[in-house]
Amino acid sequence: MDILYLMILCSVSLAAIFLVVFIVYAKKGQFEDDESPAVRILFDDEIKEKEVGNEEIDKKEIGK
């Protein structure tokens, strides 16, 4: 029965630590910008397409 009390104490302590960390980072503004990651994905795709296009041009020039 003593181990049960110990496990409850450990789990509540761990949950309290996670809650404090979440509150600290929420106050620092960690979760403010939720639009940029979605837009950043679109920019990465455009860069990859340009890189692939440049490689194809380079291969054509080498073949000539």
UniProtKB/TrEMBL annotation:
Q: Which UniProt keywords apply?
A: Membrane, Transmembrane, Transmembrane helix
Family matches, as InterPro entries: Cyt_oxidase_maturation_cbb3
Q: Does the keyword Membrane apply?
A: yes
A Pfam match: FixS
Q: Which organism is it from?
A: Chryseobacterium camelliae
Instruction: State which residue ranges cross the membrane.
Output: 6-26
* Gene name of this polypeptide: ccoS
Domain of life per record: Bacteria
Query: What is the official name of this protein in its record?
Result: Cbb3-type cytochrome oxidase assembly protein CcoS
